[in-house]
Structure to design on (476 residues):
């Protein structure tokens, strides 16, 4: 779930791609130009903010930095091409699935990553985020950290406290309670209980399934065995249908779900942390439009609460699919970014840059897009919450007029840290990560939603899901 893409982004991406060969760094032994940094944060405003951080690094170290905006798909292709020619960037900010894939292909220098991580102290990083960028060898079981975690976002539940009270509903703490609350709101108020991505066969439906299913204790794969047909997953499918059926307006995609909550047409919303600035009327492109918002533009921010972690059912694991997860550990859908260093890059300068942007320059780095870049390094050994606290004090949204702490309070800042600590994706840190990625990108599970909606037994639906996932697994 990402922010809307402004038209200027395409021009920036095309320019970056066209200049790619010039922007790549030379092999380390021939390095004479600036350090080259690829980033997916590619809007003009975000590029300018990252260039400001790079300028601070240059002033501190004397090392010049060339910031190259490059979308994830372009990064994948360009890194393979650059690796073949020996011309690679020095540092890449990329998603967890990307860096683990690159490591599996032998494209990264993980020794320098481990050096930077050791200097910064692994204990100061989000444990799940480290797991997301860890590659486990299928034969030896040996684990390698592919990149240094930086930041990310997490799914949360925004809820109208006034509407839940009117419906006589307590704030839910589990997926089962969430479904019951959504149903009660619809019955009592004739209003959508919860808006979330439920459209069959779409990316929105795929995201909604993984988010709800894993929070309900469902695993896609466990120790290499497809597990989506388990009793926990069948129950999750039933709860997903109940959540979907709480809508009075049919199925939503991500954008229409957000619009429903902003218009006051839904009592709850499953969305990413990107909703924070929009609820507070800090994004002119996506203003609150509820009836009360005309007189009070901050009405939704003042009357919304947030659930950042849903408790799993007792007796289930975290959904990390490793087979060794702690019992009843929460698992929230989200996305994380990390700093990777390609093989043959200028390792020493790359290490210095990573240590800077995750240390002295960390707060300014997070401020590039505060509501979507929550810290995965929450603090230092001396001050364990230093960077989380700093994040809470940063301006957020396009207007950058107020901080999260000012608008929502310090309690939400702490809760956001708890949500990020629970971020987990199916397959992460295991040999099954590739399969999980294929299931997500191909929309395998979302294509089975229509039968579920027509009344097919959830257990039968998840058995069919398992058959489709198994077919993918056999084709790998």
């Amino acid at each position: 779930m990402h922010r809307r893409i402004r038209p200027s982004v395409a021009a920036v991406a095309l320019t970056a791609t066209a200049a790619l060969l010039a922007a790549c760094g030379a092999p380390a032994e021939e390095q004479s130009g600036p350090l080259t940094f690829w980033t997916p944060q590619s809007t003009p405003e975000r590029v300018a903010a990252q260039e400001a951080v790079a300028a601070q690094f240059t002033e501190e170290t004397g090392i010049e930095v060339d910031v190259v905006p490059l979308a994830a798909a372009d990064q994948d292709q360009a890194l393979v091409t650059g690796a073949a020619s020996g011309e690679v960037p020095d540092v890449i900010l990329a998603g967890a699935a990307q860096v683990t894939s690159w490591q599996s292909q032998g494209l990264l220098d993980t020794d320098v990553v481990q050096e930077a991580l050791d200097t910064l102290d692994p204990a100061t990083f989000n444990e799940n985020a480290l797991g997301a960028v860890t590659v486990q060898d299928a034969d030896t079981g040996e684990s390698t950290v592919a990149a240094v975690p930086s930041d990310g976002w997490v799914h949360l539940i925004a809820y109208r406290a006034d509407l839940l009270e009117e419906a006589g509903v307590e704030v839910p703490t589990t997926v089962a309670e969430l479904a019951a609350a959504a149903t009660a709101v619809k019955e009592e108020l004739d209003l959508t209980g919860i808006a979330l991505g439920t459209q069959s066969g779409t990316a929105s439906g795929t995201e909604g399934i993984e988010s709800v299913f894993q929070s309900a204790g469902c695993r896609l794969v466990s120790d290499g065995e497809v597990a989506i047909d388990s009793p926990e997953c069948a129950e999750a499918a039933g709860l997903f249908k109940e959540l979907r059926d709480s809508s009075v307006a049919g199925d939503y995609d991500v954008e229409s779900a957000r619009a429903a909550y902003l218009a006051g047409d839904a009592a709850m919303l499953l969305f990413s942390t990107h909703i924070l600035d929009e609820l507070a009327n800090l994004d002119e492109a996506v203003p609150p439009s509820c009836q009360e918002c005309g007189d009070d533009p901050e009405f939704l921010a003042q009357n919304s609460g947030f659930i950042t972690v849903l408790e799993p059912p007792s007796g289930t694991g975290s959904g990390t699919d490793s087979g060794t997860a702690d019992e009843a550990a929460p698992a929230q859908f989200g996305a994380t970014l990390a700093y990777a260093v390609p093989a043959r890059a200028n390792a020493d300068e790359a290490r210095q840059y990573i240590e800077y942007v995750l240390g002295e320059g960390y707060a300014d780095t997070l401020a590039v897009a505060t509501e979507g870049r929550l810290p995965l390094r929450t603090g230092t050994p001396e001050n364990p919450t230093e960077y989380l606290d700093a994040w809470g004090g940063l301006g957020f949204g396009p207007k950058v007029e107020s901080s999260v702490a000012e608008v929502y309070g310090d309690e939400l800042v702490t809760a956001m840290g708890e949500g990020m600590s629970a971020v987990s994706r199916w397959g992460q840190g295991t040999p099954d990560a590739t399969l999980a990625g294929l299931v997500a990108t191909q929309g395998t599970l979302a294509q089975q939603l229509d039968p579920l909606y027509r009344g097919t037994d959830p257990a039968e639906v998840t058995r069919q899901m398992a058959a489709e996932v198994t077919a993918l697994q056999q084709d790998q």
Observations:
- The longest helix spans residues 44-61.
- The CA atoms of residues 445 and 465 lie 6 Å apart.
- The chain has a mean pLDDT of 90.
- The domain at 7-152+335-404 is CATH 3.40.190.10 (D-Maltodextrin-Binding Protein; domain 2).
